[in-house]
Amino acid sequence: MQAARPPQRLRSGRGSRRQSPVAAVPEAAAVDVLPPQCRICWLEADVEEGGALLAPCRCSGSSRCVHQRCLAAWMGAVAERKGVHAARHCDICRARYAGLPRELHLREPPVAYLRRKALAAMATPAGTAASYYAAAGMAFSTAWAVRGALLSGRWDAPLLSAARYLQGLGVHLAVGWAQAHAVGALPWPLEPAAAALCASARRLAMAIEYAHMGLLLLFGGLAKGFAQGALLTALAPIKLAAHAAGALRHGACAVAGLLPHVRRKWQRRQRKRWQAPAQQQRQPQQGPPTERGGPAALV
To answer: Is the pLDDT confidence value at 243 over 50?
Structure first.
């Protein structure tokens, strides 16, 4: 009886490839096809509410599908942290979500929309220049307001308003500190009454502050000076544009006045250039003296 032969090994050569036992298994049996899963909770689709899998962005592979409820929770968290505009885009592929149900359509508040557009406009070079100009205008207006207060010559009413304003500010800060630290240490029957009293005192102090601030601006000449400074700052670009337009107009008039002179000079040069060959053709050619008179002329 013949002994069993050992399995032959395939040698690798230049014309043959090294084969492994895995290569002999069909691909359909070697690779298990997994059903789509949610990229957040790693679960499959279910029949519960919001359990349908969506493919709202350009991501592929294991990040392609996501549960509707998981996407809703994720968009809500992103909207609270970064805003509605950021929640509408995928944080992986940066594409805007498309084909979402009506429940996932987020509405951006008008104030947030205007703030986002303003920040985007300020990020441009023109917006940055405008913001710097506005800051310079505010500084100029404040300096002009102080100048108006110094030139007004009336110091009794501004000083009284400033003292009352500082008094109201001190009361406001003291009541705020007491409401934040001391009211919580009181027993329960006294705590609500003390909190209401502190809130009323804070409102009264704020009213005193605003009233005396208005009086300070009115009697101290600050309001008039600030208005004048703001008006001058707003009119400065218009004046600059008017001066630039005037300079351009004067330059255009000067160029228009020089054009006829340049044109006449160019015409004279062209006329002389064409007249010179004609004059040379009209004049007879005179040879040397030996050729005109011959030998007799030499004697």
So the answer is: yes
Least confident segment among 6-10, 106-110, 284-288: 6-10
The CATH code that applies to domain 53-119 is 3.30.40
pTM value is: 0.38
Rounded to 5, what percent of the chain is helix, strand, coil?
Answer: 70, 0, 30
User: How far apart are the C-alpha atoms of 7 and 137, rounded to whole Å?
Assistant: 92
pLDDT at 105: 83
Domain spans in the chain, listed from the N-terminal domain onward: 53-119, 126-231
What is d(CA 296, CA 289) in angstroms, rounded to the nearest whole number?
11
What is the DSSP-derived secondary structure letter of residue 97? P
pLDDT at 75 over 80: yes
Give the closest residue to 220 by CA, choosing from 161, 287, 294, 279: 161
The 3-state DSSP class for residue 96 equals strand
Contact 148, 221 (CB under 8 A): yes
Task: Give me the mean pLDDT over the 106-123 stretch.
Answer: 83
| Secondary structure class of 66 (helix, strand, coil) | strand
